[in-house]
Design goal:
Helix content: 55-70%
Number of strands: 5
Oligomer: single chain
CATH class of one domain: Mainly Alpha
Distance between the termini: 31 Å
CATH topology of one domain: Neutral Protease, domain 2
Amino acid sequence: MLARQRKGYVVSRLTRGQGEVVFNSPTHQRGRVSSPTRQQGRVAVHLGRALLARLRGGLICAFACCLGFVVSAGVSAAADLVEATTQFRTGKYAECIEQATELVTQNDYHEPAWVLKIQAEMTVGRYADAAKSLDAALAKLNGSVQLRWLGRDVCRHTQQLERADKFNAEIVGLLQQAPWRYSDLTSQLVIGRWMLSQQTDPKQVLTKIYNEAKRRQPTNVDVWLAIGDLALDKHDYKLAGDSFQQGVKLDAENPAAHFGVARAFAPSDSKKADAALQATLALNPRHVAALLMVADEQIDSEQYDEAEKQLLQVLTINPQQPRALAYRAVIAHLRNKLDQEKQLRAAALKSWPANPEVDYVIGQKLSQKYRFAEGSAYQRQALKSDPKYLVAKIQLAQDLLRLGQEEEGLKLAEEVYAADGYNVLAHNLVTLQEHLAKFRTLEADGLQVRMDAREADIYGQRVLALLQRAKKELCEKYKVTLEQPIIVEMFPKQQDFAIRTFGMPGGSGFLGVCFGTVITAPSPASQGTSPACWEATLWHEFCHVVTLTKTKNKMPRWLSEGISVYEEGAEDPTWGQAITPRYREMLLGDELTPVSKLSGAFLSPASPAHLQFAYLESSLVVKFFLEKYGRDKLERLLVDLSVGMPINESLGRYTGSIATLDDEFAKYAREQAKAMAPLADWTEPELPKRATADEISTWLKDHPTNYIALGRLAAQQLQAKDWPAAQATLTKMTQLYPHDASPGGPYALLARIHREAKDAKQERAVLEKLAALSASDLDMLTRLNELAAAAKDWEPAKKYALRALAVNPLLPAIHRQAATAAEQLNDQRLVADSYRALLLLDPFDRAELHFKLATALQKQGQLAAAKREALLALEETPRYQAAQNLLLELVAAVPTPPLPADKPASASQSDLPAAPEKTP
């Protein structure tokens, strides 16, 4: 059933057309209810106008409810209730409790005031007071669904778990007895929230309840907040964003609406999310959930001191706030204060020992720091507390997949999907398994490479050989022994890579990801118009394997990325990253990040260019450290990290202090930037936007080394086909900036000029300079092969063909180039590999390719295999004379094995060799 329903990956299974990205084909489950009882299903139909008003994951959900209370409260108490609600909204919780207490004293049947009082008491951690208020309220309002819903959390934090469960049954009974009593807006909101907690189909709630409520009351902010909250819970970020933004339009003073916007845009638009978060805190500086979100981001960027300040602010509001204490436990773990971590976890669980959220939060944050083993242990503990806590189960599934424990991880994903068909991560992971089942696995030397079967046949052995070399060299360099198999998965479809890596479609900018012992990467088949060298990518990712193993996954991202980029360049000068004019400007400007805060540069970069700059800067830090302090100190730094020492503390041991390192590196980085092209002038030329060649030339007389102006002049000269002038300008540019490897830069343009002039020698000389700088320019590499082959210079021809295969091994033309060069050099192994690949790339000349492959195999002494290929050539073209002659030679050289006496065979059968074994 699952296989029939799953047809592709999704971003959301909740809505059609709103926030949903469907690959391959639609994936909606029409009318499916996850696991409600028949009674709950009837309640869902009967209360078709119910609304959800709960903010997921926090206790502060009174914002949405209180507006409904204003509608239902008596006129005489309305003003006082508005005042109390405003106090709650602005973080004046003590005043809110006082005002609500006065209201219930005047009228002990004032349900909205009771609910607001309990909410405020829960927010500040006065759980015992909240329990007393609940008892007093229920004594007067025994038929309240609102109080029972709210009472579940009150009872959990006062360790009355049986009573909390009893409230669910009581709600069902009340709704069956007199559903008409709960038709007011506030009760409908609460009932909708409760229905979702009981696994009622969320799409049914959305379409039959919330959308109907929106139709009837389109200006009611609670409806929009309810829809946004449900959409967030099911990962429909577009619907959530639209809904919360509409809430802001309707009530700009509502912190819940702004906070919803912050959460909805956090995965996709950090600027918008940050602005909404600040708006929330401007309205309510003591908004607990918003303060926790700030602390969460600070932990991500390793600003632990700042995060502690935020968390202490939360704890002044509620000293028992579980999530705040859980975050503090995370920081203690990351600082290797394990006893403190245990104490903080115990404190977080004090009011509710079975609260699964505490272990879930700790484990999730540790996994985000690549500590998947520790993270998975916490998720297992969360599931001991509550086996039905699905967010912990799907997090555990992802952790196990990243640890290479795929069987258990996928089993858990199946369980989550069976329990919640709207869980996007589970849906995508289970769907992915159907694709992975078709992969082939290549194994050698503790490596497991999983690839599309066709791609494995074409270049899988090249991948394996590259990884074996990386393992040998990098493990020796960093003194690491890899004890468990390293899994490398290469995906021909980008969305498969994204699902395996992130759980969601997207991630188009990533070339590869390493989790420690698992590497995922999109294969060359998924590359677009800007291909990358897959060999460089795998070398980079395998370096992560080594350094993460060395440090037991206890290293900051900037150092891990910095070492990997550095080692790319150390292995091959055309790999890695170099300072470009844009990076030069950033290094010399105010965009250089201090080493002590470098991890934050990866968290919310202002643009893709800023993210790439973070990689470059990190590699420069590693280069500087090695040049000044040596490899021995780098190794000791990694050992320090492996035992839990904080990065800045360890750096201070070897550099004097982290402040000293910040200052020294800033000076070094600026020196490197100035050395990039010291003779060039990089200022923006004061020229009209559409300046002519004459105008630019005149301006250049006073600014002869301005690189930008020279580039504009060269473009004008090329457009006018003034080849001699353009050549002179471009030559000057290469003298000013010899390392310009840009695809449309001076080397590429000079090569074009020489090609126009049919000067192959000069064209090749220019392209070889570019080839020494770039690893991913496929057109340049294939052209160099052509020029070398035309000059019968076969070693360079072979070299450039192999380099082109390192960018895209799925292009037949490149394999033909490799085969031609290999034949001239008598490299029969490469000849055979090239023709095998061509046969897999749907050629039109299969007979000729089988014949050439047979010839290459014959020269290698593989006569049985050669005989089979000759037969296949004749199967394609029976009168192929050369193949017939070759087959006769092979038949004479390869004796036919005798057949069993009881199984006579025809002559044609006796000539056929056994089918070769497939690569495992």
